Amino acid sequence: DQQVKQNSPSLSVQEGRISILNCDYTNSMFDYFLWYKKYPAEGPTFLISISSIKDKNEDGRFTVFLNKSAKHLSLHIVPSQPGDSAVYFCAASGSFGNEKLTFGTGTRLTIIP
Amino acid sequence: GAGVSQSPSNKVTEKGKDVELRCDPISGHTALYWYRQSLGQGLEFLIYFQGNSAPDKSGLPSDRFSAERTGGSVSTLTIQRTQQEDSAVYLCASSLGGVTANSPLHFGNGTRLTVT
Q1: What percent of chain B lies above the pLDDT cut of 70?
Q2: Which is more confident, A37 or B56?
Q3: Which residues of B touch A107 (CB under 8 A)?
């Protein structure tokens, strides 16, 4: 049972344009969400997070939006740069820490120069 | 400072053999996780250690898999009688304490296990 779903396995975006990566979840007990970025032969690195008390969190070129009623979150990257080409994983957790992260299957983002 | 260190980085083993994978977490991190990523798949949770609490073993796929964490630091994941379906990248991660806004997981580069 896939509790965190990334339905787009790949996405190609022109350099300078906006990249939008989507994620859906089914467990209503999730209330902390993270995005990780992974390059080949490296472990995932933390990118940005959001808790359920917010609907938006911004960090430089990266913004995460959360729609709790739709159980949907998205990551916006603007402007997209060639170095953003990687696999992006959405992850979710319960509250108060001490909870394992449940990951989606990832979306491979390719930025076209 | 040093990140999460995993060894070996690559391991090729014959079907039926036992393997041990090692993880050195970031100093001071009380939480340690093992995940694996099979080809074309997402990250699959295996086991979670938090301080002196009993580990959450709910993700271990069979009783051939076990893990321990000695002295609250180094962890070893052991796979007995390896099977070809065990081939994957095994990732270790640590955090200050569970998953909170101030302590995201920090991952190592993984051990790529190939069972022939």
Answers
A1: 95
A2: A37
A3: none
pLDDT at A95: 66
**In a 3-state reduction of DSSP, which class is residue A20?**
strand
Q: Give the total residue count for chain A.
A: 113
- Give the dihedral sign, CA B102/A6/A55/A60: positive
Q: Sort out which chain A residues have CB atoms less than 8 A from B31's CB and list them.
A: 98
Cis before residue B104, ω within 30 degrees of 0? no
The rounded distance, in Å, linking the Cα atoms of B72 and B109 is: 21
DSSP E strand boundaries for B31-87: 31-37, 43-50, 65-69, 75-79
Q: Do A46 and B104 touch (CB under 8 A)?
A: yes
pLDDT tens figures, A61-108: 999 999 999 999 999 999 999 999 999 999 998 865 546 788 999 999
- Which residues have CB under 8 Å from A15's CB, separation 6+? A79, A80, A81, A82, A111, A112, A113
